[in-house]
Batch of 4 targets.
Target 1
Amino acid sequence: MERANHSVVSEFILLGLSKSQTLQILFFLGFSVVYAGIVLGNLLILVTVIFDSRLHTPMYFLLINLSCIDMILASFAIPKMIVDFLRKQKTISWWGCYSQMFFMHLLGGSEMMLLVAMAIDRYVAICKPLHYMTIMSPRVLIWLLLSSYTIGFVHSSSQMAFMLNLPFCGPNVVDSFFCDLPLVIKLACKDTYLLQLLVVADSGLLSLVCFLLLLVFYTVIIYSVRHHAASGLAKAFSTLSAHITVVTLFFAPCVFIYVWPFSRYSVDKILCFTQSLKSYYLYIKESRSKSSHEEDKLSYT
């Protein structure tokens, strides 16, 4: 009620990816296949890990949580986007828009920290293999998991707190297929300069710090195996390259969007494609590597 007293906008109009009817039909078919692949692929990973006792290891415990986050992260906006391809008027309520922003930052922040946790797991497995099961105990795994979700929740809550009282009384057109802070904030009928700085300081800093932490862990891992045989070093590069690719596909758009979030280009549309590629890449790589994990301590996601 308090928000309604300060705002006359009750819904937002989403421009989507294209105004061409032909392209929208192609997008509908293409993204339907992509979304089905993301959901089915991650469900397959979940089922495989749960019912295969050989995969009840710390790495795969973290992996199934990553699959859950990926599946939910893909579901908060893509299904509506797919349906909107068949609609002329693409609208979303204020609370629907708010929910999309909240869950995007909650799950996105949690996934960033979970990827760091997976890098820690691989560092211990490769650099301290004799102490792996002692260090990566169930207690440590639960702590890493709870820390990831807690940081994601704090990150999202800190971003969303000011949105409840932000007035919207003018344009309500969002140049995207879902709501995100950089695009919605600029529609508010007040000076949002300080809020823009908050977005950069919060989302941009979290993305950048997590990305740098991951680079440090990968560098240490590669440095630690450099004295091994050439075949061992090549295998380390091969197994780590998959996760590095996934991390790059996830973090590069995030850093770009939230460090330069108020440019005139709707770069958040790029995030959809890269996230889809990331989910497919993760699924394919995990499907190939899960059978050899018990034989090879260097096997990586």
Target 2
Amino acid sequence: MTLIVRTLRPESPSDTEGFARVRRACVPAMLATPASVRYHVARTHPDAHYRQLIAVTDDGTVIGTAQVGIAHDSPQPGQGYANVYVHPDHENRGAGTQILRAAEAHLAQHGAREVYCWALDGDRNLAWAAARGYRPSRSAHFLRLDLTPDDALPPLGPVPPGVELRTGADFASDPQPLFALDAETAADEPSDIATELTDYEQWLAEVWNNPLLDHALTSVAVVDGHPAAFTLAHTDGDGRYSSGMTGTARAHRGRGLAKLAKNDSLHRARKAGIRVAYTGNDAGNEPMLAINNWFGYTFDAKEIRHVRTLGPLDA
């Protein structure tokens, strides 16, 4: 069987549907649809030099994917990422290796000195990463919550005095206050790659207008007229929900506002027919892990981040 590794063609339904299918099979918690795949190609910042790579068989079946780019919003230059996934039914054919080689060459051409990638936990995957020069770093957990039982969620409690719950749709005319809150909370998230959200227009393009973002199910806790905590809700139109980001402004932490917003969002999602909710947390993010444990999320998968320093022969 011949494999071809090439850049995804966003105008091709077989490419975008195949990309989304592989991602759903490998990491169900990371929602993907053909529309979101096309959108990322069109709207990711040009400084990211973003590419979606696919491994395609003789008959046109997409069996492997990668999201590849430069972390342009990091204060530290020269950091790239290449997240490679191969469909479980098509492993041991060399697709992952071919995709990774193409990804590293692309990143080296655009100035990357280090490449970060995620590997699903398991002896085979970790050995694969190590054999290609990647060393393990931090880890993250994907969690799953079945929303179908009657008692799936903790009951809705009273909203504290001075706090108002709103939806993302309430900020449709001016989402800039949510951008400010997202920028503050993202800066405090545990990560190997620091993030600085400073470009409002790009945030609108990549986050706010993302076809996965459900404004109606996004919940915002407002204090004195300003967003104090929020949870961004992603949905795929097929009964799946994922927390895109949950956080609280520094001045309001310790008041349970993130839990309040997330509970409100999940209850409304369940009422809207969502059957399963996913979330992901860095293993060191103890406050959010505690919140998700309170909701009843259970372990779904673990990924370990790896990094490799590129050399002159990688270009």
Target 3
Amino acid sequence: MKHLLAAGLLAAGLIGCAATAPQLETEHSYKVEWIGERPLIDRSHLTITLGDDGRAYGNAGCNHWFAGYQLDGDTLSFSAAGSTRKMCAEALMEQEARFLDSLSKVQRWDLNSIGQLQLWPANGKPIRLWPEDN
């Protein structure tokens, strides 16, 4: 329900500012819902925050990650991500590796019809995210 309300408010804001293209918010956390073709493992928590200083960071499900990023309009790219080195269950580690690999392939972003942030690679399905409740 909160996501529908947020999407409605976002859509209303975009309609009210039709001449202005949507902007990707920095210093705001986004919660990953899908990585390409696959949803997240139940109760796993992956996040992305784009800092004003050109550094991105978040939780990769098991470890904390960090990388540089470049944002120019709807173009977005990440440098190779680093992370802490904690070990978790094999399925979480596989999902984390897929997530970090997917980040390195991101080339652009957009918002879909329901207000989700999508991070698109050159080929394939996007990473889909919701704004995190703060």
Target 4
Amino acid sequence: MTATYTPWIGVDWGTTHRRGYALDALGTCTTEASDDQGALTTRGRHAESLAAWLPALHAPADCPVVMSGMVGSAFGWQEAPYLGPEVPLEALPQHLVHIGGDPHRSIVPGYCVRDVAGQPDVMRGEETQLLGAVAMGLRNGWFVLPGTHSKWVLLHDGRIQQLRTYMTGELFALLSTNGTLAAASQTAQPASTAPLWSQPAFADGVAAGAPGALAHQLFACRARVVTGTMPASQALAYLSGLLIGSELQDVLQDLGNAGSNPFHLIGSPALAEAYQVAARQLGSALTLLSPRDVILSGFHYIQTHKA
């Protein structure tokens, strides 16, 4: 049986994982695959790793491949310089970095955006999802992309106006497995149990996450347990709510006129539900966008508009 010809491949290549999409000329995904061969794991052998992976996508060895994410970082295949906010998302196809000058192996650059005080913030990978949203007609408003490092991005007519990163996911992972908060919670909640935010403690954490000294607020999680104010079994739910609530409230209290813009959320169902529940509690709302839909849209736009 002859394999179906695949015009090109889009790869979301993160630090620890990667997901590839085989797309036809119309941008329809014909095959997809994922594995744990992130940019850090494959350091120094990205070319060999990609070549060995292409058969899983039913792709010929010489097919065009467009990659986004940490594959373009300092420890990636080839470093792609950050773009500034003066470059609209729709111009990304003209700024691809060709590996070794080969137009069949391209990396999408990330963005560096500075705030009014000159403090830089950066992203890699999220720009392709945001481009996809723009290509779908969503050119304005706030976009939150929750994860290990949650990104908040304000777009105006397809251009990045603000970028904020919150280490919410990383902090939760660290605090729930190491140190005094982990000890207070006794054991981490198994993944098979009800979501953390289904517990009332999550709502208490969201309410406590007002802008301020987060280091002080975090210790309250332990204090609530050791004083008997909160059962140890609810500590992780409270911690999750506290971190997400702190992130949301920091953004909401500093929006000003930008607060009238719509809010869109690009994330996995579990994370999306947690953020949506917290946002509703704080009097806001987040419209959910499928991460798969937006990145496919972004890759298709790049392939059809590249120089």
